[in-house]
Design brief:
Elements (H helix, E strand, L loop, with lengths): L2 H6 L1 E4 L4 H9 L3 E4 L10 H11 L3 E4 L2 H7 L3 E3 L5 H10 L20 E2 L2 H6 L12 E4 L4 E4 L2 H14 L2
Parallel strand pairs: 1-2, 1-3, 3-4
Antiparallel strand pairs: 5-6, 6-7
């Protein structure tokens, strides 16, 4: 799967798939979360289907009935386990499971290279990490780098997909 086709994949994840949403974003996939919609709407399932159709997103859901209603526009996610969820989606040929760190895991915005000032002012960056490449979310104002958290996710993916 090429980088271009990866960037074109767009998902909408229901409220039960928050961890999957973050992992997909770490892997570079444009993933909208149902958590961005006001909770308690009586028509939420219908609204999710409308958003998926309008925005050309594939709806990922743990709700079997919602997946049935969505037809080819939806995927019923079978497992509650994050690695099983990723294996299922990868098995369908929808994603390439590798960390790209080019989207904000919180708001889904494309990250840009961080400025020296943004890195310098970040309290969470340890001195030994200062030589790494850093990215910045202009919306959340959050600094990203491939540190131990990203490396841990990458390792979990490698272990999960090695023969």
């Amino acid at each position: 799967m090429s980088q271009q086709s990866t960037e074109q994949k767009r998902f909408l994840a229901d409220r039960m798939l928050g961890t999957l949403t973050r992992y997909l974003r770490f892997m570079g996939y444009d993933t909208m979360s149902a958590n961005s919609i006001a909770p308690g709407m009586a028509r939420e399932d219908t609204l999710l289907l409308e958003i998926a159709t309008r925005d050309k997103r594939l709806l990922l859901t743990r709700d079997r009935e919602l997946a049935r209603r969505g037809g080819a526009q939806a995927v019923y996610i079978v497992s509650e386990d994050i690695m099983e969820q990723i294996r299922q989606i990868a098995g369908l040929g929808l994603i390439e499971p590798r960390v790209r760190m080019n989207r904000c895991s919180i708001c889904n915005t494309h990250l840009r290279p961080a400025t020296a000032r943004e890195v310098r002012e970040a309290r969470e960056v340890r001195e030994e990490d200062r030589e790494r490449e850093f990215s910045w979310c202009p919306v959340c104002r959050k600094l990203y780098w491939m540190g131990s958290h990203g490396e841990h996710i990458e390792e979990r993916l490698r272990e999960s997909f090695s023969p």
